[in-house]
């Protein structure tokens, strides 16, 4: 079967699809019964565990007290019995290696007896520690290939859960992943370390204000953007299968120019997927809140409520996996790549971040009079200082070959990190520089002009969707994270740089004379000093404008435009010192991550380039040559009939020239891939950036031109028009 017939068959098959009912039935089972039913949460623990064991486990989970090994067996037995009652036959230690995804190895609960029967058993030792083979996971030089031993360690702060499968269920235990030498081989371990570091420093400041908190948590709510396309289209595109994005594809006449997709009515087939994803996630205790159409055709978003950063990260990984699974059940494919379609908005993952005490106080809540809220202003200034000093680390941690396509485009913030505070807070901080009386601009009401409605309350400041790091009322939204990325690394960096600034601020304020008057005077003096230092990173305007790029350069802000420029900042001397001081990363662990990120970048581009060459040589050029033969035959036939059309000859010439150029460009790209250095990750990544990326771009330009002039009936690839609009 030819590629062009596959494309036509795909459209025919989609036309016969009707939205499936799925497994959602809230009439029979209300949301309250469904939510968390597959989670070994606090309610379930309280029900099945002895009181002393439950309390000890909660001290570990909530206050990070050292786990009492004596309770492990009791917890394991209760957890196993609960899982078996939900149909589980196996358990797995679920961890997050440095691949960007999750990993799991399943072991059975079943133990044969000497009498020929079987028991279900699960010990405290099996709960606390597992031993998967670590040799084949990325380690960045931390392990040699022959060094296979690695350990998973139970994370009691993230509850175990049940995952259904078509033939049973599995008990999933969130864990950390460490090497035999104790190095972190995962994303979770550094995140937990960074959360601890931030809590220690934040409590020092709260103590100065007489705040009785005993723990500070970082809280996160990560908005997930994604695309859905029909599975038939996906299977007819080698680039989507291999690279997760289209390596060829001419822009359609209509894309997102009319702004009619954003928050538009959700297609019935898509709604069926959304509803089932939410149902499955609610069973797992994921607090999903929002769903809507995004800006681009075929693009959507799901967003949860806030949770502690560790749990939010686990739930975010579960969300991505559930989107993939459920979409497949409905005959569609979820694309999580940052830029699956050129010229169409890419997908990000807005990382909403804040700090909360164990008493539930949000430390980034300004109140009605933020100018008089000294505690809030101190934490706000510390965060601004952190981002100013370490903007390069925030840029580096979101770097990837995929995210390079998105950062700087008009659907994402630029690679320049800046902070948006809004009119009210910008004005409050400016007053500390100038001195004098402190006031806060008050928010007025919006006059609706409709008699039946009261005036609507107006926020004290607008939102800025172009800012990479924006204050949005009681949290910061970091908008540069890519849609496919694990948010652990981002929050690890964010927690650590803020911990360092809180440490600095606490040290300065602890020098103040005793009493409220002395503290207030020290705060006034310190805030004035800090605002003057971090003022260059504050920007409330249009981050997309050329004027801002020029202004940012004048201010001395880093503009790390691609992964090759950004990633090495993770191992700069100041970064090594920072992460080492707070015991988040050792220098070995940092350098391993730099190695992994650069190697992944180069490998990704090599795979994409080879895929593009194959597609050009075996699909695009043959289709174009077939049309060229057809066109040439038509011209010869017309000439024999006495018709000479100069326009037809020009069409043939343009086509033949483009086909030849495309074939040549494919050859040049293949040669570039073959010539890539392989002796170091740094050299490979730089070569890929400087040689392979431009060669791929040149080939794509020619392939897309051929799509626009070749007979549609012989074109082999599903087009953007079809993939984005046919549901």
Percent in helix: 40-55%
Derived structural class = alpha+beta
Determine the N-to-C terminus distance: 24 Å
CATH superfamily of the largest domain: Glutamine synthetase/guanido kinase, catalytic domain
In CATH, the topology of the largest domain is named: Creatine Kinase, Chain A, domain 2
| CATH class bucket of the largest domain | Alpha Beta
Q: Report the sheet-strand fraction.
A: 5-15%
How many helical stretches? 24
Residue windows where pLDDT falls under 50 for at least 5 positions: 445-449
The number of domains: 3
The strand count comes to: 19
Largest sheet: 9 strands, mixed
The CATH architecture of the largest domain is 2-Layer Sandwich
Explain what you see.
The protein starts with a helix and ends with a helix. It has 3 domains: 35-185, Ubiquitin-like (UB roll); 194-443 and 459-495 and 531-583, Creatine Kinase, Chain A, domain 2 (2-Layer Sandwich), CATH 3.30.590; 601-725, Four Helix Bundle (Hemerythrin (Met), subunit A), CATH 1.20.120.1560. With 727 residues, the chain is of the alpha+beta class. β3 (110-112) and β4 (118-120) form a beta hairpin. The protein is built from 24 helices and 19 strands. α22 (646-674) runs antiparallel to α23 (681-709). The strands form 4 sheets. Strands 9, 10, 11, 12, 13, 14, 15, 18 and 19 form a 9-stranded mixed beta sheet that branches. Strands 1, 2, 5, 6, 7 and 8 form a 6-stranded mixed beta sheet that branches. A two-stranded antiparallel sheet has the order 3-4.
